[in-house]
Amino acid sequence: MSFSLATEGLSKAFRLHLQGDVRIPVLDGVDFSVAPGECVALAGPSGAGKSTLMRCLYGNYGVGAGRILIRHHGAPVDLAAADPRLVREIRRDTLGYVSQFLRVIPRIGARDIVAEPLRARGVPAEAARARASALLTRLNLPSRLHDLPPATFSGGEQQRINLARGFAADYPVLLLDEPTASLDPANRQVVVGLIAEAKARGAALVGIFHDTEIRDLVADRLFEVHPMQDAA
Amino acid sequence: MSTPLLTAPLLTARDLTLHFGRVAALDGVDLEIHPGEVVAIVGESGSGKTTLLRVLSGLMRPDGGEVSYLGQDVLGMGEAARRRLMRTEWGFVHQNPRDGLRMAVSAGGNIGERLMATGARHYGNIREQASHWLTRVEIDPARMDEVPARFSGGMQQRLQIARTLVTLPKLVFMDEPTGGLDVSVQARLLDLIRALVADLGLAVLIVTHDIAAARLLAHRMLVMRHGVVVESGLTDRVLDDPQHPYTQLLVSSVLAA
User: Fold this and answer.
1) pLDDT at position B257, please?
2) How far is residue B18's CA from residue B98's CA, in Å, rounded to a whole number?
């Protein structure tokens, strides 16, 4: 089966030098794969390593062993071994990430935060901002807030800005970390719709969904992440 | 439409070494910076980061090693050639704006002077450019004829940035550009630098001890300690998954606001 994103024998441990060099193994030999048009939900108890796997898939965490293959501009690339500049290019053109929390930039308005990934690809400012406005409106963020910096917005409003930013750029691969955690039922339904549309255009999605009702609506299958025994 | 990020490096340094007496300020430092790339050098005071910036920009000679800029040997070039580079394709933003500005010359003159050094002669055009750049760094162009000594510290720093960027350099060195400023002024300056760098596609090598500033601005990061680069890589990976004991200490010492 062709994949958009896959791992082979992925292992990850943390070594805490400031805490007596304790080593905490989190992932060991994980083989995971997601195909175009598919949404896979990571499952497992709290602390099993779902978020760690997600951060490895984005290149935010390094890996101890194994490969992370992502189809970038048509060819598989090992994200785990990629040069930082190649990781940036993959993140610009191929791989998106919706985190739980918005990292605000001082003085930048919501609309420009959402438009930024499109601007980075060279989309003209007007087109990028129009797309950003349309998504913010669809996620029920009042237009009077679109040009304000979101530092003082509520958790739910900030999450919707993060979602708009993640869905604005039509990434071929999209990672979603608790995308509906702070949302009301109406906005959860909007996210369900956005995910369905992304799948329909052939995007591969990987998500962590605390909300099992939403998870069962959007996920094609579950991937179980098993907690590791204390091997240290 | 989108530009490839994988290009040949602008500046390459190999195995730089410099001792002050028995203290190693640089100990086998390698570094590359590519067009459009923002690279932060972080570390505590005395780690060698400012020395590295001075060596890379040719202000200081190392004991050993090589620096090359687009194939030219920076350490071997004459003072005249280095100055020409610093006037045209390079820029340097100092921590103290007084080191980068001429305090007795008007704001407009500070910007115009650098333009004239690259061959601009038409007075009207130079004034127009100066006015444009003052606006870009959020200084009222009506204050063009005032001397920078009458400006606040934040304004002086913004003027230094305008003076540096007016010639559209390819590579800009910045040494703690927000160092001496109030926190409220720092945020504005950081945001301004971030926007200008992205718009102009500049390569920037920025020395800072401000981890949050590095996260906001830099694509890539080098962590220095005792003259050695102990860790380097993608900014968010170095900060979120630090490997070296010193990087772990540095990251864990930052207070979350």
Assistant:
1) 52
2) 27
